[in-house]
Amino acid sequence: MPDRLPLFPLSLVLFPGLVLPLHIFEERYRVLIGELLELPESERVFGVIAIRQGREVGADGVDALYDIGCTAVLHRSEQDDDGGFDIVTTGGTRFALRGLLHDRPYLVGEVDLLTEPPPDAQQQRWDEAVRMAYLDYLAALRGAGARVDEHPDLPGDALTLSYLVAASMQLDLPERQSLLAAPSVVTRLQDELAVLRLESRLLRTFGALPAPELARTPAHWN
């Protein structure tokens, strides 16, 4: 049977391992955080899932959700004077949304947690190619005037690298969601390699920065 998971629909994609701070102001999500804080720390988990159609705010704002999301583990919370919360979460495990329940003030999903496929023989080759392309992409960003670290601390394994690159590249939401939903690490790395090479060429050809989401919402690795 699928697991039940409280859901927090957002206009963003959360990846495993990435840090996501949130300000909680709607009453239904205040209830959710309050309930999570009553649980042992190891059980303070909810699901972040991207909105396909609709908006974040309002009980009837969401028209459609994507079918792959990521659990968020609640690490820190601070309650405001008005009853809201500022929280810090970390992406945990991908999940597939199988159904929705409406028995709480917030949405509850019936979900299957997704395991990561084991490494295969191709993974090392694509890992190395993406590392080189990502460093070249950062160099192209610096050449276009972005403030980007010349010596980023990249994770040592291909799976973690694939999520960090997906979270930090300049992508729109559907592209980012596609990378989250990729069926394997190799597939994700292959898709990332194509995008990295294209974006690097565009940056060097036109000498202009893309929209500033990279600077506004940097990827924080846990």
Please give the structural blueprint:
Blueprint: E1 3-10, E2 19-24, H1 27-37, E3 45-54, E4 62-65, E5 68-79, E6 85-101, E7 108-113, H2 123-143, H3 158-168, H4 173-180, H5 185-206, H6 213-216
Parallel strand pairs: 1-3
Antiparallel strand pairs: 1-7, 2-6, 3-4, 3-5, 5-6, 6-7
Description:
By secondary structure, the protein is of the alpha+beta class. The protein has two domains: about 5-115, Archaeosine Trna-guanine Transglycosylase, Chain: A, domain 4 (Roll); about 125-210, Methane Monooxygenase Hydroxylase, Chain G, domain 1, CATH 1.20.58. About 35% of the residues lie in helices and about 30% in strands. The protein is built from six helices and seven strands. The chain has helices spanning about 25-35, 125-145, 160-170, 175-180, 185-205, 215, and strands spanning about 5-10, 20-25, 45-55, 60-65, 70-80, 85-100, 110-115. Strands 1-3-5-6-7 form a five-stranded mixed beta barrel.
Strand content: 25-35%
Mean pLDDT across the residues is: 88
Helix/strand-derived category reads alpha+beta
Radius of gyration: 18 Å
| Total domains | 2
* CATH third-level topology of the largest domain: Archaeosine Trna-guanine Transglycosylase, Chain: A, domain 4
Keyword list:
Archaeosine Trna-guanine Transglycosylase, Chain: A, domain 4, 28% strand, disordered C terminus, single chain, 2 domains, Methane Monooxygenase Hydroxylase, Chain G, domain 1, 222 residues, globular, alpha+beta
In short:
35% of the residues lie in helices and 28% in strands. The protein folds into 2 domains: 3-113, Roll (Archaeosine Trna-guanine Transglycosylase, Chain: A, domain 4); 123-211, Methane Monooxygenase Hydroxylase, Chain G, domain 1, CATH 1.20.58. It has 222 residues and is α+β, with helices and mostly antiparallel strands.
